[in-house]
Amino acid sequence: MLSARVAVRTVLEETRQFSVVAEGAPGTVANIVRWSRPDVLVISHAAESEALHTLLRCPGRPGRPFCVVLAEQLTGHGTRQLLRQGAAGVLLRGTAARHLPWAVTAVAQGSLALDPCLTEALKAAYVRPAAVDRERAPAEALVSTLTPRERDVLALVGDGLPNREIADALSLSPDTVKDHLRRIYTKLGVETRLHAARIAWCAGGGTAERPDRQVPEPT
């Protein structure tokens, strides 16, 4: 544990952006927080369960610092538990030297800091499946009202292509693409390109697995 604390201190002090005001064993965390009043508390453990136990010892608000948790391994369940109990940052201990400085800065400013290994899993769990599954049937019903050519245009909108590239892909003029889009918007009952793309994703057209894909405005 001593080597882990030294490693954290070294990483933070080498940036010359932070002052380490105190350090200690997990069992002393409550006392450390009360007398040193840090802005950010870094909790480092081998197991998520140990980190959670230490997090629960931290005094409640007011006066509770933002907490960044480091653990040797991270799981979806363990990360959710840590976040529910107030962790503002969760990082792998093995790569903390690379990520800890920006994570401490982020949580001190009120943001959430997650190890890059967690972002895809969280995106898959909270952004993609549930919302898309709920909207699939209504989206498919809307898309069924389109002509085959309008469906081709909508699928390419879902893939993030601008009008000029859609025109090239379908051997149409840009003005014809715009005419198709006006009719598509009317039939789908939408006003924006992003809303049309969302329907394409949910119906299974375009890049259905990537609703975070950027959708350019017409050019």
From TrEMBL:
Gene3D superfamilies, per the entry: 3.40.50.2300
CDD domains with a match to the protein in the record: LuxR_C_like
What PROSITE patterns has UniProt attached to this entry? HTH_LUXR_1, HTH_LUXR_2
Keyword tags: DNA-binding, Transcription, Transcription regulation
UniProt keyword Transcription regulation present: yes
Pfam families assigned to the protein according to its UniProt record, in alphabetical order:
GerE
Q: What is this protein called?
A: LuxR C-terminal-related transcriptional regulator
What species was this sequence derived from?
Streptomyces bullii
Indicate whether Transcription regulation appears among the record's keywords: yes
Residue stretches making up the HTH luxR-type domain:
139-204
